[in-house]
Amino acid sequence: MIEDPPLIRLRRRFPRPDAATLAALRGLPTGFAVDAMDGRGALAAAIKPLPDTPPALCGVALTCEAGPADNLAVFTAMAVAQPGDVIVAAVDAFAATAVTGDLLMGMMRNRGVAGFVTDGMVRDIAGIVAVGLPCFCAGVTPNSPVRNGPGTVGLPIVVGGVAVESGDVVIGDADGVVIVPRAAFATVTARLAAIRRAEAELDARVKGGLTIPEWLDEFVASGRIREVD
């Protein structure tokens, strides 16, 4: 390259969900959100809440691409975050160093950040637990990163196999993390009542002794099963 690239490319302004959308999605189980998006939307299975940190998470995605062994972009995201944002950090699943520790997590909490999600590692478990902020990651290592860049903040990323844009809604629970894209807000919120109703009805039937659902009885009797000895 003729010139060195900037250390951070920053997009500070992006469309944000309205209060009604956030209220409709807050407290929603990740499975319900996935059902409302036709069975997809969850990040890679390895990304789970750090043990003993709050597993419930809902907020506005603020994306950053930190790259391997670097967290300058995470610091920059923290500096521009608004209360209620969830910092989502892509590191290309790099596992040799952590992307954050307890001190940076504490600064995020002090800024009003709602949580942190990464496809990489974190460190300082006891300190992060004491901070009390939801932290979803792929694992833990004591190795520390540097702050050299380059990176991005506010621009589209891919994390855990899912495309994420700033302004999407991030939902997390013990099962993992789901991204609700801006383009899906209306569809997801419109489907939630029917999903909750169907889930409650089937749950009641299972607790009441249901063994085989009607569709399975019909399938077994349909002639589409070939039995072999």
The Cα radius of gyration reads 20 Å
Listing every helix as H and every strand as E from the N terminus to the C terminus, the arrangement reads: EHHEEHEEHEEHEEEEEEEHH
CATH class: Alpha Beta
Question: How does the major sheet shape up?
Answer: 9 strands, mixed
| Mean pLDDT score | 96
Count of alpha and pi helical runs: 7
Number of distinct beta strands: 14
Q: Judging from the principal axes of the Cα atoms, what is the shape?
A: elongated
Q: Please give the CATH architecture.
A: 3-Layer(bba) Sandwich
- Fraction of residues in β-strands: 15-25%
Uncertain spans, ≥5 residues at pLDDT below 50?
none
CATH fold description: Glucose Oxidase, domain 1
Q: How far apart are the termini?
A: 67 Å
Q: Class by helix and strand content?
A: alpha/beta
The proportion of residues forming helix, as a percent range, comes to 25-40%
CATH superfamily: Ribonuclease E inhibitor RraA/RraA-like
Number of structural units classed as domains: 1
What is the fold's blueprint, element by element?
Elements: E1 8-10, H1 19-25, H2 30-36, E2 48-49, E3 57-65, H3 72-80, E4 85-90, E5 98-100, H4 102-111, E6 115-118, E7 121-122, H5 125-131, E8 135-137, E9 139-140, E10 151-153, E11 157-159, E12 162-164, E13 169-173, E14 176-180, H6 185-207, H7 214-220
Helix pairs in contact: 2-6, 4-5
